[in-house]
Amino acid sequence: MPFLATGKSAVDAACGVGSVPALMYRQYILQDPTATIYILPQSEDSTAVAAKGTITVAGTATAGGTIALYLAGTKIQIGVASGSDATTVAAAIVAKINATANVPVSVSSSAGVITLTSLNKGEVGNEIDVRFNYLGTAGGESTPAGLTLSVSALTGGETNPSDSLSSGLTNLSDKTFDFIVSPYTDSTSLGLLEALLDETSGRWSWAQMLYGGYFCGVRGTAGTLSTFGNGRDEFTGTGMGFDDSPSPAWLWGADYMGAAAASLRADPGVPLQELVLNVLAPPVESRFDLSIRNTLLYDGISTFVVNDAGQVVIDRAITFWQTNTSGAPDITWLNVETPYSLVYIIRDIQAFLKARYGRKKLVADGTDISGGSNMVTSQTILAAAVGRYKTLCDNGFAQGYETFKANASAENMGNGTVALMLPFHLVDQLRMIAIKVNFISGVSA
Q1: Does residue 442 form part of some domain?
Q2: What is the number of domains present in the chain?
Q3: Which of 335, 350, 375 represents a domain boundary (last residue)?
Q4: Which of helix, strand or coil describes residue 68?
Q5: Residues 6 or more apart from 417 whose CB is under 8 A from it?
Q6: Taking every annotated instance into account, which residue ranges of this chain make up the domain Tail sheath protein subtilisin-like (predicted)?
Q7: Segment 60-73, tens digit of pLDDT
């Protein structure tokens, strides 16, 4: 069952210190600290396996210094004295890791070899990155002379909790969750989220009208990400693609959603580009250039850039939607802002009409209604909806009022039902300012 997250300590107690949900919660609130957050804990599959990796220390330090270890994006500094051998240094690394709060692994060492084991079983553990000297010598990070540090990445994490996830999503019942972040990016898990949010029988269907969308971070080379994106085609999901960041994909997903949710709740029409994320950027050589980013965008993958301060900045936030039901390329649901803008208008007009007409008697169109009466016609309701749409246009949530007014319609269907046809026109997002420059040389003729 989902539970209300009331703070870091409560989440740690419920999910475990250093667990994936506890770390995702911490990451999310960096972007959206006042949000009401629910967590849906998952029971590990009985066949799940924890990811494991190693750090091998060799040599003897010929000079003192500091080791800069990055573990799942957390920087851990280990002081090394001159003359320290491999076993001593390995023990010091283990001690410092154990003394560091909120790390997602358990550690042990023997004869200079440190074994790291993911606290959570399943594929999520394969995302735990281990590296040294992320900032390099330019950032003042280097291995003390005489020592060699080798990393064998955490691998072998297997079997995400699909059965637990399936039953857990069912337990969401009819409560509204507009933003969902998933640490799992396997096809089974994302398929369950797609079904949850489906237009036919899920949260976007006429029978539920709960709406919502899911976010995730996806690690991989450009080719891997393109394959991943082309394997999906739903407007209810979005994935930020990256490669070679020290931060796990599930932290990218949490941070991406936190930044997006805070913006979309405030005004869903404002573009998500230029929002800064609190994850560690990939090294320069691992960042995607303009050409690759453009390719990824055509394959359903959201992109980022890195600014001069080394911060990760959203470049373009898109959904996984790529083709319509006929299989033809389609941009209707391309932008993440689109479904949230649509839902904002739907809910606003619904709430407005319900507040005004929640306890009224419906009579035939053309009925002469005196002032102060509790009777209403379909055309009265239509006029109110048109007026509310004008307010939405004035406030920048919609546009095209005159066209809307001319084409909106209402019909009394009988049995107490009024059917409205409301042709919303969503606002656009400013994506680019193109400038053509002409000039005259200052050199005299």
Answers
A1: no
A2: 3
A3: 335
A4: strand
A5: none
A6: 165-319
A7: 999 999 999 999 99
